[in-house]
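Collaborator request, handled under Task 6.
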Amino acid sequence: MTQPLHGTQLARSLGLGAAVAIGMGSMMGAGVFAAWTPAAQAAGDGLLLGLAIAAAVALANATSSAQLAAVYPSSGGTYVYGRARLGEWWGFAAGWCFVIGKTASITAIALIFGSYAAPEGWQHIAGAAAVLALAVVNWFGITRTATAARMLVLATLLALTVATAVGASGGITAPQPGAALEPYGVLQSAGILFFAFAGYARIATLGEEVVDPAKTIPRAIVLALVATAAVYAVVGVVLLGSLGADGVAASDAPVAELVTRAGAGWGVVVRVGAAAASLGALLALMTGVGRTALAMAREGDLPRWLAAVHPRHGVPHRADLLLTAVAIVIVLAVDLRGAIAFSSFGVLLYYFIANVAAFAQGSGQRRYPRALQVFGAAACLVLVVTLPPEGIVAGAVVLAAGLLGRLVRRRRRRRRRRRRSAPGA
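Structure tokens returned to the collaborator:
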């Protein structure tokens, strides 16, 4: 691992509470308000089983990320871990999967924000405006990002509390026993719901900005995941008990539907909370992708000019600017269809590499048993192949393009070095 270039070092300013807030903010966003519908369409009454599988896979992945982050507290997450434990190509594959998967997530979440915050026909413009506004917040430093994440998490929890309380007040019906569950549909729902859990990686990608990372990062990752899983479980039980699997599958906004069906006047609170949750996830995503791009640029896997860190605000401003521009273009040009599946494809492969890298760590660096990493790696692959086909195809094409592009760049660099070293050059 090369040392960071001069002017590319980030400052350590995040404590445990701030790191947990960023992790929760990135998880409790679009997933808790938008992933239930496609998951229910896939699993039906097996929705809660799909949620449990997604949470179990997320826990295995989170412990692997925590174990690795304690030893490699640098920006970049599994890109750094894969390079250190498995080799450059594994690291690049992890970094590229993260960048493409999370760029898809940014697109999806920005559009979801627009669907809650803007009138019909203005969703794309509102989503692009949200990306631009949060890029400005991110520009002024990670401590301001953490403060914004705390406020957005609180707004999200308020909205979910209102929705679940109102929904539960009308009575909850237990699922009918004996209903046949389709294993493929349950697994597909788990892959879709995994999209809602993937935000804990943002804590690891901020490893260079966390105080006492060897202790703070593992604790923050597990705390953020457990707290988020508990919230999701409560929401899932109330949704199924109040709306039923068919009602959840048929609603574009099932959490808001809880309030609407009860006839309560809290709909605006839920809508504002959903928009805040999307903003929180969007902010954390943009932060994490920028840091991974910074780490890849340091190693030459992306253009090295992206490795610059702003001398005053301490952020990877060039990487963030490029991400913002690309995200705005995509938000304005595409629809939400398939974005979650595409995102899950990239992120699940990213965590597959994280589990393999954690498995390769020696006894002196281990915090969790290898069996947990074997389960995590195998489960990631199973969930990838059960995703909707359009997400698999699009993800495979973009992943292959990235790997091919790196191969071409490496060959060109070798040819240039040979020319410079040739006699008479």
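The cover message to the collaborator said: "The two ends are 30 Å apart (CA to CA). Residues 94 and 350 are 5 Å apart (CA to CA). Please let us know whether this matches your experimental observations."
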